[in-house]
Specification:
It holds the Pfam family TOBE. InterPro entries: Mo/tungstate-bd_C_term_dom, Transp-assoc_OB_typ1. This is Transport-associated OB type 1 domain-containing protein. The chain is about 10% helix and about 60% strand. It has a 5-stranded antiparallel beta sheet. The longest helix has 7 residues. It is globular, with a radius of gyration of 11 Å.
C-alpha cells in the first residue's frame, strides 16, 4: 500500500463503542498508544479484534486506521 501519510504499525489494544462511533487504541511502541475515533460501521468493516495487528495512518489533522 502506498499512501502520502505517516504510518505507525502496532497492535490493536482495545476499542470502546458509543452509539455512533468507536474509540480505537493502537499501541505503536512500548508505552505509546494512539487513539482514533472511527464509526462503528468502520470497526465492523475492518473486522478488527483486540490484539490483532493494525496500522495508525496519521495526517496533521486526522488519525485513520488501516489493516491488510
Amino acid at each position: 500500500m502506498q499512501i502520502s501519510a505517516r504510518r505507525h504499525h502496532g497492535d490493536g489494544r482495545r476499542h470502546r463503542r458509543g452509539p455512533h462511533d468507536a474509540h480505537v487504541k493502537i499501541e505503536i511502541a512500548a508505552g505509546q498508544t494512539v487513539t482514533a475515533a472511527i464509526t462503528n460501521e468502520a470497526v465492523d468493516s475492518l473486522k478488527r479484534s483486540v490484539g490483532a495487528p493494525a496500522c495508525a495512518v496519521m495526517k496533521p489533522s486526522d488519525v485513520m486506521v488501516a489493516v491488510d
